[in-house]
Design brief:
The chain is α/β, with parallel strands linked by helices. 39% of the residues lie in helices and 21% in strands. The protein contains 11 helices and 14 strands. Helix 1 links the parallel strand 1 and strand 2.
C-alpha cells in the first residue's frame, strides 16, 4: 500500500505560475496524492482563480505573508500525510516524478529528505541554480550544488545521474517524511526565506537522518519567482541566514575558527559590492550582520535543542577559493 503523499505549494502572488503550471502538475500526479495550495495572503486573485478553475485543489489560507519558512510551517500543520512534498509554484513536473522518490525513501528508514533532479525551465538541458543535482556546503558555510558552482551552471550530460547521499535538498522540490518534519519542528520561521532548507537538512543530519538525491525524478524550475536574482533584501537574507545556520549547527570546536574567517570573507564581499558600485548590497551585508548579532540570544536557545555532531558531505575546504582563485568551475573538480 502506497503511503499517503501530499504535494504542497506555498503561493504568494503567483497566480501566473498556477495558471501555467498547475495543469501539468495535476496531469502527472497520481490520484492517491493530495495536492494542496497554501496561500500567504496573496493579493493577485490567486485564491479566486483556484476556486473557480481547480475546485478539487485543497486551499489553506494564511492570514498574512509569513515568508517561505513560517508560511510552510503554518500550512503543513494543517496537512495530514506520511510524506510532504514542498513544491515551488514555479516548478514544472514531469511524468513519474513522485513514484521513484517515494520508493527510495520507503526502502531506507534512514532517508528522511530527498530531492529530484532540478533543471532549468528555460534551458532544459542545464542544471538549475537552486538545487541542481543535490546541495552541498563547505566548512565555512558556503552552499553549492552538483551542476552549479556559484554562477556557473553545467549542462546535464548524465554526469550526475547517480543516486547518492547529499548535504541539503532544494526547497523548490523537497520530499520529506512528515514524522521527521514534525519531530524537527519544521523550518526555522525566523529565516523568513533563503537557506531555511539547508538549516532544516543540517538539523535532520544532526538528528541522525540522511538526505538523498533521486535522478529518476526530474522537474524544471523557473527560479526567481518571488525575489529577483539581484535584490538587497535577498542579499540580506542570504548573509544573515547563513550565519544563523552555522551558529546553530556547527560543533563547538568548529565555531571558534569558522566565524572569524567568515566575518573576514563577508567584509571582503561587502567591499566588493562597493567597488562594483552597489551600495545597497553593501548595506544589506552590514544589516545582515547586525541582525544576526541581535538574534544571538534566541539562536543560543535553538542551539541547545540541537545535538551537534560530525555529519557527512561537508566539503572540507573553501569553495570560494577553489572557484575564484584556482579556477575550479564544476563540481567534478571538487574533491568531496
Amino acid at each position: 500500500m502506497m503511503k499517503k503523499v501530499a504535494v504542497v505549494i506555498l503561493n504568494w502572488n503567483g497566480k501566473k505560475f498556477l495558471e501555467d503550471l498547475l495543469p501539468t502538475l495535476i496531469q502527472h500526479t497520481p490520484a492517491y496524492v493530495n495536492i494542496v495550495v497554501g496561500d500567504n495572503a496573496s493579493t493577485d486573485g490567486s485564491v479566486e482563480f483556484l476556486q473557480q478553475n481547480h475546485p478539487q485543489i485543497q486551499i489553506i489560507q494564511n492570514d498574512k505573508n509569513y515568508g517561505f519558512a513560517e508560511g510552510y510551517n503554518r500550512v503543513l500543520a494543517k496537512v495530514k500525510a506520511d510524506y510532504f512534498v514542498l513544491l515551488n509554484s514555479d516548478v514544472e513536473v514531469t511524468p513519474n516524478w513522485i513514484e521513484p522518490v517515494i520508493e527510495m525513501m520507503e526502502s531506507n528508514d534512514e532517508i528522511a529528505i530527498c530531492q529530484p533532479k532540478l533543471l532549468s525551465y528555460y534551458q532544459r538541458d542545464t542544471f538549475e541554480y537552486a538545487g541542481g543535482a543535490g546541495g552541498y556546503i563547505d566548512k565555512y558555510g558556503y552552499p553549492f550544488c552538483r551542476g552549479r558552482l556559484f554562477t556557473t551552471l553545467e549542462k546535464d550530460n548524465g554526469q550526475y545521474s547517480d543516486t547518492r547521499e547529499i548535504f541539503w535538498a532544494s526547497g523548490a522540490a523537497m520530499f520529506v517524511k512528515s514524522k521527521v518534519w514534525n519531530d524537527l519542528g519544521g523550518l526555522d520561521g525566523d529565516f523568513f526565506a533563503h537557506m531555511e532548507e539547508i538549516d532544516f537538512c543540517w538539523r535532520a543530519k544532526n538528528a541522525g537522518h540522511k538526505v538523498y538525491y533521486c535522478p529518476q525524478s526530474v522537474v524544471y524550475h523557473i527560479g526567481g519567482g518571488t525575489l529577483p536574482p539581484s535584490s538587497p533584501f535577498k542579499t540580506f537574507l542570504n548573509f544573515r541566514n547563513n550565519f544563523s545556520l552555522l551558529f546553530k549547527n556547527l560543533q563547538k570546536r568548529q565555531l571558534a575558527y569558522v566565524f572569524p574567517i567568515r566575518v573576514l570573507m563577508d567584509w571582503i564581499a561587502a567591499l566588493k559590492f562597493l567597488a562594483e558600485k552597489k551600495p545597497k548590497e553593501f548595506t544589506a551585508v552590514m544589516k545582515a550582520h547586525w541582525d544576526f548579532y541581535r538574534q544571538i540570544p534566541t539562536l543560543k536557545q535553538k542551539r541547545k535543542d540541537i545535538t551537534q555532531r560530525k555529519v557527512s558531505n561537508i566539503y572540507n575546504g573553501n569553495i570560494v577559493l577553489e572557484y575564484y582563485l584556482r579556477g575550479k568551475k564544476t563540481f567534478s573538480k571538487i574533491d568531496i
